[in-house]
Specification:
Pfam families: GmrSD_N (PF03235), RAMA (PF18755). The chain is α+β, with helices and mostly antiparallel strands. The protein folds into 4 domains: 208 residues, no CATH class; 214 residues, no CATH class; 157 residues, no CATH class; 85 residues. It is built from 29 helices and 15 strands.
């Protein structure tokens, strides 16, 4: 068994030297939006230090031919990297950059050398054609127009969701930032390529690599350096003290590294550069070593901040006051964690005994005595409770608004650094930069709430939880499984209770908050039910679903009408605006009463369309499609041909007179299968509808 291992930058992997394919026995693509967003965030941070490579792990490959390889380990990263490159290509204006990015994921071919055009990476057979057609070949507009029913596997749903999220995240960067990101991705992101000519050997390599000895963590390095600065007589005592402080944080190296990264930010007011060990030693630890005060660092800095971190990880188990626990539990609902640094600072500056090993901040199991003691004798040493409450309230407001505005990790870390800098100066909370929301941020968040929220069920779940709790006036206990389900079914063609609905109205409301409710159980449990009454009754069947007032509310409606959904939409947006305190502007005008078009001016130039679905009506209004013109979908091998006419109302009319609000819906009705923008072409000049959609997106970006 011949084994070869080399480290290469990504630009040397996505080349003709490696024709990669994922065998059918491998698991499907399972990365979720949070995984790909974390990768993008890490790369954004890393590319600020272009001279420092970013190691993305190893690929284990089995050689099948001269340049053909099967991927045994690394498929999740390879698919995600392809998605990121495809999004960068679609956002690009410069033809040369587009060509270079395209060549990373699709071999352009060379007739002279006998090289055929093909994707660099081929997925499992079930998903290969889908990934090639929509991602690798650049039909992102068609992808953005798809619904769940257009997918034949969970992997395809993950591809759609992750492509949208990657596109939205990268769209926040300006052209220069995207070019810098792309250059770093190609030249400085490295992988160790392990190749073998034997499948069994590849699996043995995989097993060995996953059982290898654990490397030193940042905590190990910092502990060793700290112990070197202590008198010999104190080393054993403080080595044990260090372990007592750090062991409860767990042995997850990534979590421990995150703790030190936030501690570095708190103490220096500087976001991490990607070189944590070097930065923490030079910016923090060396100062204590030089001052012969390592004991002060361990007792006065490490101990209280480590306890603060533990509190943030398990706030419900603490003896903290109810309002503080509630705020921390709410902050833990968010997918991004930059808020933790500010919360750590706030806790450390609000409880004098946070680092005292004799004081427990956690309730004893099976007893309420510790929590009761915390309320009466106050062994925690709490002070300035009002300021702590103000900080946590403002922190959640900023975290929620940043989430809605899709702020990048760099922006979020900038907010955190600015907030801690001003808090250290003793500024009142209302004057702390990083804990305030601008008029543009307010407007941008409200615009997002008004729009379609397709493809991000975790976001919709969080929004509905917040709206329901605002309506209830208290936190609501959540069932273990809590799903977001639409009041209307995806297909209303055969539903008598929706017979009065037009396709336009159904399309408009399908993915908006007004059409969504929380329900105990898993996603998809009422998908087969098409009648409103049966869907409503199934939602209300379980008592845990009725805990949520906006869910229980549908019991009062005997039919689902546009007026009902509009009422729910307005109420939900109003509740969310009140929760995050973004309902009113500086002159106390109610922003929730303004339509999104009026809010757009306040949102400023930073607002982007992102991957939001484009409608026929919008393209007609922009003059890129003209009422009366026709488009054709042809399948010559089957002798099939369909024509649609663009209507004045912004719809597609098939030759049988039926009308549809989206190209995908028209294609499904015509051909009886999922197809989208890329199949329709102008009869006048053969231009693809997907190119027209992209032109509209570029115009309105």
């Amino acid at each position: 068994m011949a084994i070869n291992a080399t480290e290469k930058p990504l630009g040397k992997v996505f080349t003709p030297d490696y024709q990669l394919s994922i065998p059918s026995f491998q698991r499907a693509y399972i990365w979720k939006p949070e995984n790909i967003l974390q990768l993008i965030s890490d790369l954004e941070e890393a590319c600020k230090s272009p001279e420092t490579p970013y190691f993305l792990g190893s690929l284990i490959l089995v050689r099948e031919g001269d340049t053909s390889f099967s991927v045994i380990d690394g498929q999740q990263r390879l698919v995600s990297l392809s998605i990121i490159i495809a999004a960068l290509r679609d956002l690009e204006h410069d033809e040369e950059w587009m060509r270079l990015l395209d060549a990373l994921i699709v071999e352009p071919g060379d007739k002279l050398r006998g090289i055929t055009s093909q994707p660099r990476l081929t997925l499992r057979e079930r998903d290969a054609a889908f990934f090639r057609e929509y991602v690798q070949e650049g039909n992102l507009e068609a992808l953005f127009d798809m619904n769940d029913e257009d997918c034949s596997s969970n992997a395809q749903r993950n591809i759609i969701a992750n492509t949208k999220q990657a596109y939205d995240a990268l769209a926040q960067l300006d052209e220069e930032e995207r070019h810098r990101f792309a250059s770093y991705l190609v030249n400085s992101v490295t992988l160790v390529i392990v190749t073998t000519d034997d499948l069994d050997g590849a699996h043995r390599i995989f097993d060995v690599m996953n059982m290898r000895g654990l490397p030193l963590t940042p905590s190990d390095v910092f502990k060793a350096r700290a112990m070197s600065g202590l008198p010999a007589a104190a080393v054993d005592t403080y080595a044990s003290r260090w372990d007592d402080i750090m062991d409860p944080l767990g042995d997850d190296a990534t979590r421990v590294e995150e703790f030190f990264r936030y501690l570095h930010l708190i103490l220096t007011h500087k976001p991490a550069t990607g070189k944590l060990i070097e930065d923490f030693l030079s910016d923090v630890l060396n100062q204590y070593l030089a001052g012969h005060s390592i004991e002060a660092f361990i007792d006065g800095v490490l101990a209280p901040y480590a306890m603060a971190w533990r509190i943030l990880e398990r706030p419900s188990d603490t003896v903290l006051p109810d309002d503080v626990r509630g705020r921390l539990e709410a902050l833990n609902d968010y997918r991004h964690h930059e808020w933790k640094a500010v919360a750590m600072w706030a806790l450390t500056h609000s409880f004098r005994n946070l680092g005292d090993p004799e004081v427990s901040f956690f309730a004893q199991r099976g007893s309420h005595s510790a929590r009761d003691c915390g309320r009466t004798a106050d062994p925690l040493g709490s002070h300035d409770r009002q300021r702590l409450g103000e900080i946590l309230c403002a922190l959640e407001q900023v975290t929620g608004v940043d989430m809605l505005n899709r702020r990048s990790a760099i922006d979020r870390r900038g907010h955190t650094a600015a907030a801690i800098r001003d808090l250290d100066k003793g500024f009142p909370v209302r004057l702390v930069r990083g804990l305030s929301v601008s008029a543009a941020d307010r407007a941008g968040a409200l615009i997002r709430l008004h729009g379609e929220l397709q493809g991000d069920p975790d976001l919709v779940r969080l929004l509905l939880v917040r709206a329901n709790e605002q309506r209830a006036g208290a936190r609501i206990p959540r069932p273990r499984a809590l799903a977001v389900v639409p009041i209307m079914p995806l297909d209303i063609a055969s539903a008598a209770s929706f017979s009065s609905w037009t396709a336009d109205l159904h399309d408009y409301w399908m993915y908006r908050l007004g059409n969504m409710v929380l329900m105990q159980g898993k996603e998809g449990q009422i998908d087969r039910l098409t009648e409103y009454g049966r869907r409503r009754d199934r939602v209300l069947l379980r008592a845990d679903s009725c805990r949520f007032p906006l869910t229980k509310q549908i019991a009062d409606f005997n039919e689902c009408t546009p007026a009902m959904l509009e009422y729910r939409q307005k109420e939900t947006i109003r509740l969310l605006a009140e929760y995050w305190d973004i309902r009113y502007d500086e002159s106390h005008a109610d922003l929730t009463s303004k339509p999104p078009e009026q809010l757009s001016g306040d949102a400023g130039s930073r607002q982007t369309r992102g991957s939001q679905r484009v409608t026929i009506k919008q393209v007609v209004a922009a003059g890129l499609l003209i009422p009366g013109e026709t488009l054709v979908w042809e399948r010559p091998r089957k002798g099939e041909r369909w024509l649609v006419t663009v209507t004045q109302e912004g719809r597609f009319r098939l030759e049988d007179g039926s009308e549809y609000a989206s190209p995908t819906a028209a294609a499904r009705a015509a051909g009886g299968r999922s197809a989208g923008l890329d199949v329709w072409k102008r009869t006048s000049n053969g231009e693809k509808l997907s190119d027209i959609w992209k032109a509209y997106r570029l115009r309105t970006r």
